[in-house]
Amino acid sequence: xxxxxxxxxxxxxxxxxxxxxxxxxxxxxxxxxxxxxxxxxxxxxxxxxxxxxxxxxxxxxxxxxxxxxxxxxxxxxxxxxxxxxxxxxxxxxxxxxxxxxxxxxxxxxxxxxxxxxxxxxxxxxxxxxxxxxxxxxxxxxxxxxxxxxxxxxxxxxxxxxxxxxxxxxxxxxxxxxxxxxxxxxxxxxxxxxxxxxxxxxxxxxxxxxxxxxxxxxxxxxxxxxxxxxxxxxxxxxxxxxxxxxxxxxxxxxxxxxxxxxxxxxxxxxxxxxxxxxxxxxxxx
Length: 284
Description:
The protein is α+β, with helices and mostly antiparallel strands. The chain is built from 9 helices and 15 strands. The strands form 4 sheets. Strands 1, 3, 5, 6, 7, 11, 13, 14 and 15 form a 9-stranded mixed β-sheet that branches. It has a two-stranded antiparallel sheet with strand order 2-12.
């Protein structure tokens, strides 16, 4: 989890508030997918506006542009639920002294924004195992999409005849052939990278990895993380009582614990804290 890690694809990291991890995540043994509309990025939370077009001479007068756009925006957003993580940056050397600034659990802005100003928790997951859990538990109830978020500053002017930039274009020909329900799924799977896995470059330091569940069921989705949770990182300001509660709840899971401390503007591991030595024993 910390030492001798040279693969940037080995772990993913989930920052959270202390009350959330103590009251829900650890006792329940699962993580909750959030509605796409609840993200803190206006690109994702605000309504999208769609143009429409046809290559087959469809009658545009049949459609109300504002209503058609509002329909597809709501349909796409309402069918999407997300679970978001940070990842390690590429190029890890395996030397934890050199790599600390590239690790997904050492992002000061993430600690401040998502983990209650460094008082929360960063959960460390084995990426392969967690992906298997997501796909095995939720794959039957909806389509699972996953991947790194790409960071790109997209201007408001689009090249309408470039098929790679038609995520905000409704194809009336296909809509009339397959109907609204099928069209939503087809549009999502055709353009999901640009719609759901692209953010402005200002977010790039999050180095985000996300899972998206496409489902017509509005009930929140949960995934049991089981053996994929491998470690817990505590923040600079995580209270002692929170640390003790978290370690007590997880004492039989075989986890690696560690804290981050800042000294002279530099982060480092709290190796001097004896309670983090070793790993919690797994049950026999």
